[in-house]
Design a protein that fits this description.
The chain is an alpha/beta fold. Helix content is 39%, strand content 15%. It has 19 helices and eleven strands. The longest helix is centred in the middle third of the chain and has 22 residues. Keywords: Transferase. Belongs to the CoA-transferase III family. GO terms for molecular function: transferase activity.
């Protein structure tokens, strides 16, 4: 393994990130947060398109600044012979290679698994795509929204009888990024045992499908097809969203038998607590409307802070539905270090301290940290090329030729 200036359990691990957008960069971000030296390869001139996604001012989005933190950015035209040669030299010294191009793209560029193993038999190759590297749909383009639909989650979102909706975040890409990290770390463990480099195949739709719990067994065994259910979750009662006197909503989960007893006594319904049918979840499911109505009548009697205070005192799992301003203001987020303030250029001639999300998970001995935000395009090209033995004069020639 190579050395790096990182700090954390992955210090000394070098990652070459060939991907763009969300999925592979999510994996690279996590690895970089815990010390890996992540070299992000971007197209010359335009870079990763994420640089201009959700842009609110300036020329680089804050989404990119967050997603590329701790990474070193180099520019490299992977469609050119010279660019591919430099990529192979980078890979020869890498522990992990990340990519999320359409299947067959790396092979077209002479950077497929065989070529990677030829220059670095121990490298762990992590491949993320819409539908995976095999199967009849492998060549289909597949972004996160498509994967969420194909994987089953989109069918379950929203309310019955209304068009399916999506969450306002890149769910499939982010979950696939997590699986990519898991696969990469498993590959490193395999290397430790003296085995050749692993190839990790992550499909966006499979990342979503893995979240579908017992949907398929329920269908296959009983013919039950889950449908959209609004704020509830099928077969778990009570677990719902209830409106308070101030018009705000709270989430209450009283589906544990002992918790249900406490909740019913709290809301003044000991009769439901003592009802034999309602002492198990199976019985409560049959009378979910009655239970939800009882809880909703109670939450409507007071403002949400008071309702949440009473629920917490009774040890009933509950919480508010937060928007981003609520998250920023909440003291628990701050106490857990889930906000980091960094100076960032938000306009051509203006810098400002801006809050960014903290790092997950929390480690006691070698926690992750932000060393720098996502860099300017190609900020580390000269530095990385020098590490490969490419002189400044050669780098200038490559730049003139559009290779970097």
């Amino acid at each position: 393994m190579t050395t790096s200036t990182g700090h954390g359990p992955l210090t000394g691990v070098r990652v070459v990130e060939l991907g763009n957008f969300i999925a592979a960069p999510t994996a690279g971000r996590i690895l970089a947060e815990f010390g890996a030296d992540v070299i992000k390869v971007e197209r010359p001139r335009t870079g990763d398109e994420l640089r201009t996604w959700r842009l609110h001012g300036g020329d680089v989005s804050l989404l990119f600044r967050a997603m590329a933190r701790n990474k070193r950015s180099i520019t490299l035209d992977l469609r050119s012979d010279r660019g591919q040669d430099i990529a192979r030299r980078l890979i020869a010294d890498a522990d992990i290679v990340l990519e999320n191009f359409r299947p067959g793209t790396l092979e077209k560029w002479g950077l497929g698994p065989e070529e990677i193993r030829a220059v670095n038999p121990e490298a762990v190759l992590v491949r993320i795509s819409g539908f995976g590297q095999t199967g009849p749909y492998r060549e289909r383009p597949g972004f996160g929204g498509v994967a969420e639909a194909f994987g089953g989650v989109r069918h379950l979102t929203g309310y019955p009888g209304l068009p399916p909706v999506r969450t306002g975040i890149s769910l499939a890409d982010s979950v696939a990024g997590l699986y990519a990290v898991i696969g990469a770390l498993m590959g490193l463990l395999r290397r430790r045992a003296g085995q050749p480099g692993e190839i990790v195949d992550v499909a966006l739709y499979e990342a979503i499908y893995s979240l579908m719990e017992s949907s398929v067994p329920d269908f296959d065994a009983f013919g039950v097809t889950r449908e959209a259910t609004g704020p509830t979750i099928p077969g778990v009662v009570p677990s719902n969203t209830y409106q308070c006197a101030d018009g705000k909503y709270v989430v209450v989960g009283g589906n544990n038998n002992a918790i249900f007893d406490r909740l019913m006594r709290l809301i003044g319904r000991p009769d439901l607590a003592e009802d034999p049918q309602l002492r198990t979840n199976v019985g409560r499911v049959e009378r979910s409307d009655e239970i939800d109505a009882a809880i909703g009548s109670w939450t409507a009697t007071a403002d949400s802070p008071r309702i949440l205070e009473l629920l917490a005192t009774a040890s009933v799992p509950s919480g508010p539905i937060y928007a981003v301003p609520d998250i920023v203001a909440d003291p628990h987020y701050a106490a857990r270090g889930m906000h980091e303030r960094h100076e960032v250029r938000i306009e051509q001639d203006e810098t400002r301290e801006v809050l960014f999300p903290g790092i997950v998970p929390k480690l006691s001995e070698e926690p992750g940290r932000t060393r720098w935000l996502g860099p300017e395009l190609g900020a580390h090209t000269g530095e990385v090329l020098a590490e490969l033995g490419i002189s400044p004069e050669q780098a200038a020639e490559l730049r003139t030729g559009g290779v970097i």
